[in-house]
Amino acid sequence: MPRLFIATLVTAALTLVAAARADTRIRVGQTPAASLVASYIAQEKGFFTRRGLEVELQPIVLNSNIPAGIVAGSTDIGGTTTTVLLQAVDSGIDLVTVSGTNVTFKESKNSAIIARNESGISAPADFVGKKIGVPGLGALAHVSLRNWLTQHGVDYTRVNYVELSFPQQRDALQSGLVDAVVTVEPTYSRILAAGLGKDVGHAFDSLPPGTQTILYSTTREWATAHRDAVRAFHEANEEGTRYALAHLDEARAAIAKYMKLPPDAANDVEMPRLSATVTVADLAVIADIMKQQGMLHAPIDPAKLLFP
User: How many domains does the chain have?
Assistant: First the structure.
């Protein structure tokens, strides 16, 4: 009887713990992109639920809107580009990063600056006076483009920038609303396949190879109050990263599903260089570029943005 009683208590306790863990619901806001395939895999393969997390992946059109959603409480964790994270911190929002997604690499063809055929743009100097579509003012693509222009001796302040989400870019080029766009897959391939423009450069090449581009972030207060959930989220994202790299067919299928792409289109998408690890250097290099562009008003200590 004592053994049976103890066994019953243990079973009941384990059931309560499992139920408590299962109640950990996390809303993750992110702009659909192949770079986030680890989260798609983690959702599909049950890596989140295995760790007691109920994760809702929330599509958000403009990356720059994510910090506001986190502060408003409509999303818990956001997949923000590094520049959006740093701008939010600079404005007084106490955000921290809890996991990474992918890093830059020189041979990447996943993104490009595509100029409209009639734009007259064929070299960096031709951008002066032109109207360029970027997926968010202050977004990483915007900052990288200005850094790319600077590296090629062009005054980026003499270029006009228009905020265009990726789904809007093809129509904007076709109608002549903009002269060029900074875009990524699958928009990149679709624009080229339609004959609407030409590849004239790669803005992300202005960043050091191995730099994180999209970081999962949340408020320090939320991360502190949900420390176990944050750790579990990062571990699931890491497992999703490893699985995606080892099972490319499943990774592409997940990209097709979550980005609502035909399978053939997903097959043409370049696989990102996945990494869930975020370092101080990832934040520091972008912060330095943003300082050069006058985007930050006070010093930021990158080490304080990494949640333990």
Answer: 2
